[in-house]
Structure formats: structure tokens, C-alpha cells
Amino acid sequence: MEALIAGAGPAGTHLAIRLARSGWRVTLVDPLPEPSRNAYSSGALPLQDANRLRIPDACRSAHWWGWQLLNPAGVEHQWWSDDPLGVVLDFAALRTWLWDEAVRAGVELLAGQRVRLLRLDTDTAAVRIHTNGESSEERVYPHLVDATGARRVLLHQAGLDVDSPADPLLTGEGSEWVLQGNDRTTERWRDRLSFMLGRQWIPHGYGWVFPMQHHQLKVGVCRLAPPAGSRASLNTALKRLLKRCGLDELPVIDRHGGIVSSTVNRREALGSGVLRAVGDSASTANLLGGEGIRHAMDSADVLAQCLLSGATLQDYQLSLNRRFNWRWSLSNRLARKTWWGLNTESGDQRIARLIDGLSGQASAEDLSELLFDYRFERYGLRLLPYLR
Coil, strand, or helix at residue 237? Predict the structure, then answer.
């Protein structure tokens, strides 16, 4: 069996590896000429997920033991564990490892190339593969996968409705810089995930500082604004955050950015004919924390099993919904309410009260379950204002 996968991020590459190791002939196409380009991802995930996904140590830039939340007034709240809770990934190293694994599995990897859908039928898809706009080749495949992320290139080319009024597509945008510090300048941010919440940090979003090896820091801002919300420069907000945190004098060694998008209820079409969407193209990115890597790879496992078993598109949709369950929609509803409303004094006051409440009641492990596993049950009454 053959398949073409457009997009060599975590979802597309993980899927390609799974299929190739099962005996499929797989072509993986990505517009990036090399995996280290635009390595945009804050890359924080729980330790158990890094181990479950078998991410090698070479891709783990740092471990973290604690959480640090700075409220709208800049007051720090901290939670600590006796054991490491998670890792911060070197995303360029992660993507390099995945590409190398794909090639070792026998995948045909076409870097620096793009896919255009020419024809989509019930049993085949015809595509044109372009190389930097200079040459092209037409091919036909019995399976086609859109792993192009928030752009959803093939879904759009197929004319599928991925942004309906009943369940509109919500888009967040982010900018991240990597700074070079030293033992003194990074001490405040070491061994923890730090988040800045409130409109004085960034309206309709949040900022972060994550540790990396060699005294480097990932510093970024992300915004999920309502349709009529602020569209001020993200880099202006990022520079303001750097100054407020005392990091504005550190050398910047990399700049990158990107978008993340998802529907709230994930009811949009995930394919047609032989076309399927996976990862961010299938709305697996979580809007509350802008998190996507582990969910993209999990969705690739779901799609791999469906393709190998000959499951229908409806079966795939149901399997994906079972994998991400009801917590997914609740988390996205909280994200929409939280970030859309975080542009007023009352919004700042609400988020400050929430942080105060968590500071008095939750452990570091509790916070990880809340923010990574979306276990909101014990905080139900406190979260009700966000759902109205």
C-alpha cells in the first residue's frame, strides 16, 4: 500500500514512520529544506509523555520540577515537586530525529518541496509535487494525508469546510525568541515553567519563559483574540515582557513564530475520499496552553491504526474523539472564555483570583494534571465563570 503525507512535523513524520514500519511505501513531503528551520515550539510536555513517545535524551533540552505563574500585577506564585515533572524539548533536534527515523524506516523524504492536490476521488488522489517552483512531478496515490498544520493546505485545496459558523476555527498566534544567558541571569527561570498572565503582559494571551540547556531561555508570547480583538504587534509585547522580566539585555540567538488553530468541538470534516487530516490539521492542538506536539503524535497513532485496518473516515473521526474525549471540548471552551476575556480590569481580577486559589490549594502535581491532563473536576466551581 502507498501513501503520500504532506507535512513533516511531529504528526506527519510519526505517521510516516508507523506506516513504513508496517510495510507501506510512504512519501513524506515538506517545504522546509532542513529540519532545523523555523523550529517554533515552546516544547514543554510531561515527563511521562516524553517517555511514552520514546523521545530520546538528545531532544530533551532541560527538565523542570516546578511551576511559576506571574499574575497581572507581576506577583510570583510557585509550586514545586521533589521529582522532575516534565521536559522542555529542543524542537529542532526533535524534528531532526524524526526525519532521520523516517529515512531509516524507508520513507521517501522530499524536503524543500510542496504538494498540490489535482484530483480527489473515492479511491485515489492525483497530486503535483513542486520543487521550489522550478520543477514538478505528477503522482497518483491511494492514500493522501494533510499534516500541514494550521494551514490545512490539502483540506482547503479539496474544498472542505473547516471553518463553519456552528463550530468556527479559532486561531492563536505566537512569537518566541531564544536568549543566551549565564548562570546569574537565568537563575530566576531555571528548573521551572514560567507563565505571565494578564493584559499588562499581553492582551488576550500569555507569556512564558522556559529553561533550556547551556543557560538558554525560550521566551515567548501567544495571543488568542476574538474576531474584533487586538492585533497589536506580538514582538512589541514580547519586548515589553523581556524588559519587565529583566531579560532585555540578553543576546537573541534565534527568532521564530507561528500559529495554532482548532475548533472548539472538533466537528469539522477531517477528510474526503482518500484524504485524511492529522495533527494540527485535525484540530488536535490544545488552545488553552497552545500545546500540540504530543497530541499531534497521538493523533498520528490513531490514524495509523485506522489506515492499517482499512477503517472509514467516520471510524477515524470517532476514534479520534474517543482518544481526546470530553475534556478536549471543555478545555477549548475555557481557552476561548479565558483568552477572549483577558483584556479588561475584570478579566485581570478574575485570573488573579484563580491563581490565588490555586496557590492555596494545589500542589505542583495538581497543576500538571490541570494544565496537561485537563482534569478540571476538583476546580469545577472556580471554573464556572469561564463557561458562561
Answer: helix
Cα separation, 224 vs 168, whole angstroms: 13
In tens, the pLDDT along 199-249 reads: 989 999 999 999 999 999 999 999 998 887 666 788 899 999 999 999 999
Domain of 292, in residue numbers:
2-37+92-164+268-328
Examine the domain organization and report whether 31 and 99 are in the same domain. Answer: yes
Contact by Cβ (8 Å): 47, 86: yes
What backbone torsions phi and psi does residue 189 show, to the nearest 5 degrees?
A: -115, 0
CATH code, 228: 3.30.9.10
pLDDT, one tens digit per residue, over 140-170 is 999 999 999 989 999 999 999 888 788 888 8
Q: Show Cβ contacts of residue 388 under 8 Å, excluding neighbours closer than 6 positions.
A: 337
Instruction: Look up residue 167 and give its DSSP letter.
Output: B
- Regarding whether 102 and 19 lie in a shared domain, the answer is yes
pTM, full prediction = 0.91
**CA angle, 293 as apex, 292 and 296 as ends, to 5°?**
80
Q: Which is it for strands 25-30 and 2-6: parallel, antiparallel or unpaired?
A: parallel
CB 276 within 8 A of CB 313: yes
For residue range 265-281, list pLDDT tens digits in order: 878 889 999 999 999 99
Radius of gyration of the chain (CA): 21
DSSP 164: B
26 and 130 in one domain? yes
**Do both 313 and 181 map to the same domain?**
no
Structure-block grid coordinates of residue 85? 515533572
